[in-house]
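User: My advisor, Dr. K., asked me to get a structural model of this assembly before our group meeting. I'm new to this, so sorry if the format is off. These are the inputs:
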Amino acid sequence: MKLLAARRRHPMALVVLLLVGLLLTGGAYSLFTGSTTASADEYSAADVEAGQKLFVTNCATCHGLNAEGSENGPSLIGVGAAAVDFQVSTGRMPLQMHGPQAQVKQAQFSEEEIAQMAGYVASLGPGPAVPDEEWLDTAEGDAAAGGGLFRTNCAMCHNVVGSGGALTRGKYAPNLTEVSEKHLYEAMQTGPQNMPIFNDANLSPEEKRDIITYVREVSETPSAGGFKLGSLGPVAEGLFIWFFGLAGVVGITMWLTARSK
Amino acid sequence: MSTAQTTSKTVAAVGSVAQWTEDRTGASKAVREFGRKIFPSHWSFMLGEVALYSFIILVLSGTFLTFWFKPAMAEVVYQGPWTALHGVTISEAYASTLEISFEIRGGLFIRQMHHWAALLFMAALTIHALRIFFTGAFRKPRELNWVIGIVLSMVGLGAGFTGYSLPDDLLSGNGLRIIDGLLKSIPLVGTYISFFLFGGEFPGIHIVSRLYSLHIMILPAVLIALIGVHLMFVVIHKHTQWPGAGHSEKNVVGEPVLPTFAAKGGGFFFLIFALVAFISAIFTINPIWNYGPYDPSPVSAGTQPDWYVGWADGILRIMPGWMEFYIFGYPISLNINIAIIIMLLFWGIAMVWPWIEAWMLGDNREHHILDRPRNNPTRTGLGVAAAVWYAVMWAGASGDLVAVFFHMSLNDMIYIFRVLFIVGPFIAFFLTRRICLSLQRKDRELVLHGHETGQIIRLPHGEFQERHQPLTPHEVWALTAFETPQVLPAQPGKDGKVSGLERVRARMAKYFYEDRIHPVTKAELDAAHEAHHHDEVAAGDHDDHKGLEK
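Assistant: The format is fine. Below is the predicted structure of the whole assembly, which you can bring to the meeting.
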């Protein structure tokens, strides 16, 4: 203790103290939030090796030979298997062309290949894993609680029932009604494109499941009032009354005032 | 009993009831007088009726809704059939609207009818106003009725908005938040007005019951009173009519109220009712269960007002942020105020337009014969310019949806709307005026040369000519019976001097009405026929010719 006491007024003491503090909080953080973080453990060495080959052939042009990133694509170290699974199995990656946002298209790889690439990326650094089945089971979720979370966290971009909406400069929040449970979860977990990351400290896995349950519920419940007009709200309704309602009215007026010939 | 006997008995029964009523009310005079009113028949004259019938549907369906709606903001825990809200704490207003939608028999249908009828009411009112404007039906003696119509559209907007805000769902709460912002942006008194309306800081616990009083009592009462005066004026002024053979400024050619017009009108009401019922049965409107209860923190993407408030929302969306600035530390939120300013300006100019037009032309005569829009190119041009200006603001409110559906950048949409907001009306005015003038030239051409028949004839000396078929007298009348606006040069006043205002008037009149096409005169028509005749005579084609010209 004498050694410490003697040096407590040393000019570097503050820096050391800060470093120790940062290391401790950082270490504690990773301990507490590491619940769904996967390392390469769940993927076999053969998978990782096959994944690396696929990566070098299909992804390295933009993301770099060691996934360190380039001016055309971000580094993938630490993005986790969930990010790879979401981006590749929704067809967003490999990117078709540069633009404001990656577009959904037909998936370019088989499930096995996607898992191999996910394994390779997971081996580069710890990151979120592909979610367990239990967090995707909407029978366990609470739609009402999910609705509250959805309105607070998601609706400003995705619309209250997930019909989608515009973001700045040509970016957009996609329609969620056809998105699978797994992809909904992974999107929240990894924050693809312009979406914020909702990690397990923001929204617990249970809360994510509630949100997924809500999205499923509102997109699968039959509409009580008839055709939904895209669930887009008053703009669709206004267009409808002008182009169909008023057109019907004008048709009726013309019929009533038509002269017999 | 024979048929004749039955008939005479029925007639006697009806007669005695009629006599009983007549003795006590003296109604026969009014019925006779009103029954003889003549209404010209044209589809565009029936648009105002659509607004009236939509209003009747609104009153009927609205009354039904009041039986169950609870205009209260006390909180209850939802336990109804919509599982996505189970256990959520919501206001009584929202809970009762959910109850109407899911638990009251026919409730959702009536609610949808009420909402669709409201949209149709405002849409019909709008195209009715456009018809009045573009045909010049607002001219003396109908200026006051035009003003009443504009006030009706303002009150109608208020009635619609207060109704939109009642269910206390997320969408309506977001709309109210914008109203709160609009009020608070008014310099000096804004905050006081907002606190007065909401009974404290937004959203408070009073707003729904206050809007309810406005929505079901005060605003409908104002609407009914104004509609009554509006219709009374229609009867007093008599209906306008299109130019046509036998139509003059002193008569009305059409069908009497009894029996023809009344029967048609009654049938028309049921057709409109059927149309609204059909739409309401098939198409969802305002699915409030999707929006969830109001809470000031969330906002949904695609949050828009009903269409008739859209232009105000659009102004807010396209105005640049630098329009808010500080003077001595006090914020001046011109970017928000501008929405109120533009709306009042728009309505204000519309209201005084009949007097502006009469003043520019120095025209104090009564007008009962309508203008075809092309025959007053300046008015039509200005009307289309105003409509385009409105439409840009209106579209501005849906910029986000347009961006998504047409894969555009939202930022670019805003820039496009800003440019169109300034230049759109000018382009619309010049283009429309030129198109109107061209259409008038086409009409002249048609009157002077007749319809093209596609028949080519060869004259004895070898020349080929196309034979034209002259117009019927009715067609000629419809195309030539109009007045072209005359530019009245600056006139000296009583003191013999030309005042500054008069000079401005003359300059405006010259700018707006200098380019004009005169209707074909009789002399021109005769000359054209003469020339035509010669050709035909030369062709030795007497028999055919008689058939064509009559």
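One thing worth pointing out at the meeting: Chain B touches chain A through 71 residues (CB under 8 Å).

User: Perfect, thanks a lot.
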